[in-house]
Structures are given as C-alpha cells and as structure tokens.
Amino acid sequence: MEKQKIKITVREVAARAGVSTATVSRAFNHKGIVNPKTYQSIMEAATALDYKQETAGDISPNRAPVISYTNRNNSKKAVDKRLLIINIPAISNPFYTEIIKGIQSSALNHQFDFLLYSGHIKESSIDTFLELVDYVKAQGVILLNLISEELLARITEIIPVVQCCEYTQNEFASSVGINDFTSTQRAMDYFLSTGRKRIGFINGPLSYKFSQNRLQAYYKAMETAGIEVQSQWVIQLPDLSPDMAFSSVVKLLSMPDAPDCFFAVSDVLAAAAIRAAHYCRLKVPGDILVIGFDNTDISHLTTPSITTVNQPKFQLGFLACELLCEKIRNPESEVKHMLLNTELILRESTAVGAFTAKGY
Amino acid sequence: MEKQKIKITVREVAARAGVSTATVSRAFNHKGIVNPKTYQSIMEAATALDYKQETAGDISPNRAPVISYTNRNNSKKAVDKRLLIINIPAISNPFYTEIIKGIQSSALNHQFDFLLYSGHIKESSIDTFLELVDYVKAQGVILLNLISEELLARITEIIPVVQCCEYTQNEFASSVGINDFTSTQRAMDYFLSTGRKRIGFINGPLSYKFSQNRLQAYYKAMETAGIEVQSQWVIQLPDLSPDMAFSSVVKLLSMPDAPDCFFAVSDVLAAAAIRAAHYCRLKVPGDILVIGFDNTDISHLTTPSITTVNQPKFQLGFLACELLCEKIRNPESEVKHMLLNTELILRESTAVGAFTAKGY
C-alpha cells in the first residue's frame, strides 16, 4: 500500500511558485501557452512539494477535465461564501435582464451569490479574467458570450462553466440556448404566407453564433420557397446598434427591388427599420412588414408595435444556473446541450391591412 | 518611547473571533447593531491580540471614517489584483450602459478591474453584501442605487464608497449626480412656452431620490406659473415598468380636464405614454406633447421620436470612479458632492404642428 500523506494541491504549488492557480493549471495542461520561465518555476515548486497531478486517464475523455477545480475546492480551508461569476457581453441589452433574473432564482435556491463580469473574453483578456476568477474565489462561471473553444477550454481547466444563449457544442461545458433555425423558419413562413417574396434580413455581427444560425436559416427558407436572394437584401451590421441599421435600411429602400419585408435579429434593429420606413414615407405594415427578435420592452412600445420572436429568457438563465450547480456538486456530471423552444408573437408591424393602434 | 510591535489588524481580530472583518468594524463603531454574543467574542479576541483601535479623535469629524479599510489593506500580504464592486439596481435599464462605460474608462486608467453586483442593498441584504465585498477582497464600491444613510455608513466603515446618480448629501461618501431641479425646470419651461397648462407628470417610485426631486421641481414650476395641479395629473407608479404607465395614461386621458402634456421621469415611461395616446386616438405631438428623461436608445426609435433630458452618463460614471480611486489612494481625501449639467434634446414628440417623420 502506498504511503498515506496529505495531498498537495494546485493552490500550494501556485503559492510556492508565486503565480495564480490558473497559471499552474495551464502549465500542467497546456505547457505551450505558459511563459517558459514561469513554467520552470512551477515545475520546480511541484517537484519540491512532491505534487502529483491526476492523469488524463483518470477521467473519461468525453467529460470535461475536472482535475484543477476539484483540487482547487479541496484546497480551501472553508468555503465561507458561494460565488458564481456571470460574464455578460455588455449590459446595454435589456434582453439580459430576464436571463439574470432566471439565474438569480436558481442561484438563490442553491445558496449562491453572483457577480457580473461585463466585457468580451478574448485572447488579450483571458488571463485577467482567469486571475480575477481565482482572486475572488468563485466556484462557477456562466458565459452569456461566445468565446473560442480554446479559451473555453482554458476556463474549464480551473472552474466549472456553463454556456447560456451563445454556445458551441463541445465536450468542455454544457449549454442552454434556443433553436435559431426553427425560430427563423417560423418568421419566414409568416412573411411567405402573405405572398410577399422580397424579404430583407438585418443581421448582427457574424461573430455571434445566433447571427450565423439565423442567416443560414434565412437562406434555407428562401431557397425552399424558390426565391433568389439579392445580395443587397442582407444587411450585415458591424454591431447591434440601431443607427447603422437605420441608415442601411433607408439606403436599401431607395433601390429598385427593395424588400417589402424585414426580418431583424433584434427588436432594436426592427425598431430602427420601422423608423427608416417612416423616414422614406412608407407605412408599416401597409407597405413594409417587420419582424424582430427577443420580445424586449421596445417591441411593444413602438408605433406600430413589433411582431417578434419571444425567447424563454427566464428559463434560459434558470436552466444554465441549474446545470452549473449540478456540475459544481458533481464534477463528473455529463456535459449537456439543451435547446429551448421560442414562439412568434404577432403584433401590429405585420398586421397586413389598415393599421390601427390597438394597445399592446 | 513606546514599544515597537507589529500592528494587529482588524482582519486578525476577525479571524480569531471567527467573524468577518465587516462585523468587527461594526462591533467597534456601532456596538448596538452587533449581536451581544458576537460582540463579546470580538472584544475577547481584540484583548487577547492587544488590538489598538484608532480613536475617532484621530480623524476629522467631517471626514468619512477610514480606520477599518486602512487596516484591511495593510493586513493583506500582497494586493495581486485591484478590484471594485459596482452596485446597480437592475441591469434592465439601458441608462446604466453608458455609466458603466465611464466607470470602465476610469478604472482602466487606475488599473482596477470591476464586477457588478445587481440588486438593492437593504437592511435584509446588507450583511450578505458586506460579506461578499470582504470575500472578494474588493478595494472600493460605487453605488448606483440609493440606500439609507445608516446602511451607507456601515459600508463606508469597511471600504471606500462613492455614490453615483442616486445619492444623499452626507459626510460618509462622495457623490456625482445631476441637477434634477434645473433639468425638470427646463422641460416645464418648454411646455409652458407653448401656452399649454394641463401638464401631467409620470413618476417612478418615491424611494428614488430622482423621483422625489423631479416631482418637487414639477410642483414648484406649476406654482410659479400660477397653475393649480389637479391631483390626478400626477401618476405615481410602483415601479419603472411601462405597462402600468400605459394603463394609467389611458385612464387619465378619458377623464375631463385630462393633461395635454406629459413629463415622464424616464424614456420608457414616455414611450408608454405615446402608445397610450395613440390607443386613445390622440396625436403626439398634435394633441399631446411628451417629454422623457435619460436619452436612451428608445427615445429616438419610437414614432414620434421623444424629446428628452440628456444626462451626461459617461461623465457620471467616469467621475464617480475617479473620486473613488482618489479616496482609495488617499483615505483622508475630502468627501465631495458634484452635480453635472443636463440638456434638453428636442425631437418630434414636442414638435408642435403637423408631424412629419424626419429621421433622428
């Protein structure tokens, strides 16, 4: 039988080497991305302490690597606080409010507090983020932002992660999202049912997974309907701000064969399209039909109110947090990818015929 | 000469007594609000360690108490991360986006990271908040939410605080806000200049300082103009959601002597008032004029676009963070209260005469 001794943790190695636990994890798992000098001192510290890294063979290759954060939790004297970090891309989008409420509801059940980290996690900011997660002793992370699989893998090395809304289907982290394909298909079917064929598409940056998926669904629907898409019908915006959408739609509406329908990937962009139509002396829905996405406040406050795809925002947040808490409780739990259903809410912006304000 | 010895910190007293540093600070500063048993064990720990509390006489009575967080910082082995906590009431309000950008810009200059704490700090949640601030080893707090002076005092006992937007004028924490009085006065002057007298006021909860201030300014302006306010002209909402505003305005517009102008304390409420007017077959601005507040996206996406009071949002956030960093660097720095100017942005909702869509 092996000699029984107190298990040396990543935290102790990190302390001896004078680096963060995140760096130690990276040194063991992705030697290439750690500064060689730092790598050297971590290895020296590990040797001096007789640190034993669990080998990859100990866990199923289909599961997320759980070594580091298991050690990390064990190494804490006492968890006097349970904390999650929620990464939101920007707090501008009212879309996130309901998602945060869903997360809050689940977190409360599991006695977790949470703090929001605002901003994109990129190659240039991943170290700052990992150090911060370590500094505040968080136990789990929910990402509302799409990041590369490589960066995602680095985060999951040191802490359990769940992806919410934006996700890639990988073996590192569970995800909860919506089915962009069927959601877009339903909006397109509605436009096509009115007999209109010149359907425009107002898209956000293609760095968003939802922009990629919805655009693909748009092309597929047009192809199935036997309509040839004119390239100018697809407005590809550099960001989700409404100003560019307004100008682009105004420009497009002055061209021959301009669209008589617009599908926008967010309500704010749909609102900008309605303003643009009004600016061009066109009526919505008389001349132009508009469908938005998200069912945020703005969709029922504009005139006309906006037909939109409702996302189950509360449930997205709630389920993401439930999956995260499960992963924290049981690091061996399976990685799951869940898609929730949406619904098309019909309002005035697609009410073909004379427009009358009917409240909301 | 006194015996030189290593100074015992609040953190060491807290560790020995098995409580948070926040509780130790409270025990020393506000004995009455600490559980007697806890108080007893803290005092025993302090005696055993020979902890010397700096006396109130050491600092000017006009300055915020700085004892605890000074000790707190000294007690850290090494500050390997600089972290601020920003308390936002809810992430729903797009108003906060620009404020957060301002904070970010200043924080970056001072090498601070920041995390957002979403929710109201109340009597029932203050302990959780203080423990969290301690747990994550934050060095400063910006409050975007109004809290009672008593709770504010408890936070400033352990960490430097700056109030942003919502504030009380006290000696504990600096503040940056806007002049609600002159902002409201300017909007009222505009309404009155059109010759209209039946001015309605759509207000948020009176728990917000801005709701109190703007309502006061409204009454003052009406009094100065010699107009008697009919009580039903003031719509007092239980929250800032637009649904209640819509119903209340619809109801009010069906009454005799209904207002022909509405001043709303936020753009979302102004948008709801416009929808309500449309629902009642009234034209904005033909029949009803509407002015909002904040100059958020929605104000230029509705039809008609909304005349609104622009707050210098970026500057509010930037200055709040500058004041906080100054306080962290120099705990003796003076408590300051700053008021920034606003401007009235004229759009279609007050363009008296025939309405024409003119873009934005």
From TrEMBL, chains A, B:
Please provide the record's keywords in A-Z order.
DNA-binding, Transcription, Transcription regulation
Question: Keyword Transcription regulation: yes or no?
Answer: yes
Any one GO MF term held by the record is:
DNA-binding transcription factor activity
Gene3D superfamilies of this UniProt entry?
A: 3.40.50.2300, lambda repressor-like DNA-binding domains (1.10.260.40)
What residue stretches are annotated with the HTH lacI-type domain?
8-70
Checking SMART domains in the record gives: HTH_LACI (SM00354)
Q: What's the protein here called?
A: LacI family DNA-binding transcriptional regulator
Originating organism: Diplocloster agilis
